[in-house]
Design goal:
Family: Belongs to the glycosyltransferase 9 family.
Largest sheet: 6 strands, parallel
EC number: 2.4.99.24
CATH superfamily of the largest domain: Glycogen Phosphorylase B
Catalytic activity: an L-alpha-D-Hep-(1->5)-[alpha-Kdo-(2->4)]-alpha-Kdo-(2->6)-lipid A + ADP-L-glycero-beta-D-manno-heptose = an L-alpha-D-Hep-(1->3)-L-alpha-D-Hep-(1->5)-[alpha-Kdo-(2->4)]-alpha-Kdo-(2->6)-lipid A + ADP + H(+)
Keywords: Glycosyltransferase, Transferase
Number of helices: 14
Number of domains: 2
Shape: globular
GO molecular function, one term: ADP-heptose-lipopolysaccharide heptosyltransferase activity
Length: 354
């Protein structure tokens, strides 16, 4: 495979119209990053439809992903193989007559339904010795530096070198839809900061969202708290700290979070799925990092600011742990509320000038 001067993956066969199925990772941030795989496939085969297997949680994301024909919504339990549900999914996939399936997760479970459906080409890494389930086995996953490299490499020919840069994920949210959403929620039309205080793993959660929200409101900005049901307590704490002026927009529908991130003037988030959503939309996004590495886990999309503590060098950082076990969470506690509020204001000023 050759790369053009613009680093685009070259088209292989415009006459090929066999549909392709992607079995992605189903965590929100990983699902968003999987759009890079879609874009690589569409560059190689512009006329092959691309579908995504998706959970009901991540389903709304598919509506905003260019190049995706359809999302196949199918919830499989996390704790078991659920063979009856796998057979039902296989029947659904067989009816869609896929020519190729890219199985991004390394598990047996992810590969069962494509194999039962008889999809002719089933591409994936060795994983859990998935001989037979994967019939276009790839090797060398451990040599690939980043999560995105491991995933997007499966969309390239076997053995092809990685491009200097991958296509970045995109979520395209119509302006009319965000305007309707603001009106429906009584949010007015003023500049707003969307806060994403949640994350998978307590160590990735920055401590001072309530104080930052208060400072931002004092500076004349609206503040929205965005997240799922697990962030409800955090949202209530932020609302209380601002004497009810911040808006709690947490809930069970991810579409609400997508539209909040699209409507906001700037997003401030931990290393989480909402950070990847905001960045893929193109909203100026501040990612707060402590225990995780921005090189490994930041969006491919440009961040308006990558916020890290710089007061002292911590030997444990980045630890990649979900719970802090040393240095009393200083990688996050040493990032102050005033610092984040100042950066947010600077980001908003810069984005309004462009």
């Amino acid at each position: 495979m050759n790369l053009s001067s613009s680093d685009r993956i070259e088209m292989e066969d415009a006459a090929d119209t066999r549909p392709i199925l992607i079995v992605p990772y189903m965590w929100i941030g990983d699902f968003v990053r999987g759009h890079t795989v879609v874009r690589v496939l569409k560059q190689r085969w512009p006329n092959r439809p691309v579908d995504l297997l998706v959970t009901s949680l991540c389903g709304p994301l598919v509506d905003y992903m260019p190049g995706v024909r359809a999302g196949i919504v199918w919830d499989l339990p996390r704790s078991r193989l659920a063979l009856a549900k796998q057979r039902g999914l296989a029947a659904e996939l067989r009816a869609r007559d896929y020519g190729t399936a890219l199985v991004l997760p390394r598990t047996w479970k992810a590969a069962i339904a494509p194999a039962l459906a008889g999809i002719p080409e089933r591409v994936g890494f060795f994983g859990e010795a998935r001989f037979g389930l994967i019939n276009r086995m790839r090797w060398g996953e451990k040599a690939l530096p980043r999560f995105i490299d491991k995933n997007a490499a499966l969309a390239l020919p076997d053995g092809a070198p990685l491009p200097p840069e991958w296509p970045v994920p995109q979520l395209v949210v119509p302006l009319a839809e965000t305007a309707r959403w603001r009106r429906a929620n009584g949010l007015g039309s003023g500049p707003a900061v969307a806060l994403g205080p949640g994350s998978v793993g307590a160590s990735k959660r920055w401590t001072y969202y309530p104080e930052a929200a208060r400072l931002l409101i004092e500076r004349g900005l609206d503040v929205w708290v965005v997240g799922g049901p697990g962030e409800k307590a955090l949202a209530q704490e932020i609302v209380a700290a601002t004497e009810g002026k911040a808006r709690d927009l947490t809930g069970t529908d991810l579409r609400n979070g997508i539209l909040a991130m699209a409507a906001a003037s700037v997003a401030i988030s931990n290393d989480s799925g909402l950070m990847h959503i905001a960045a893929a939309i193109g909203t100026p996004t501040m990612g707060i990092f402590g225990p995780t590495s921005p090189y490994l886990w930041a969006p491919l999309n440009d961040l308006a600011a990558t916020v890290l503590q710089t007061k002292s060098k911590l030997p444990c950082q980045p630890c990649q742990r979900t719970v802090c076990t040393m240095n009393d969470h200083r990688c996050m506690r040493d990032i102050t509320a005033s610092e984040v509020a100042d950066i947010a204001q600077r980001v908003m000023t810069q984005s309004s000038v462009r």
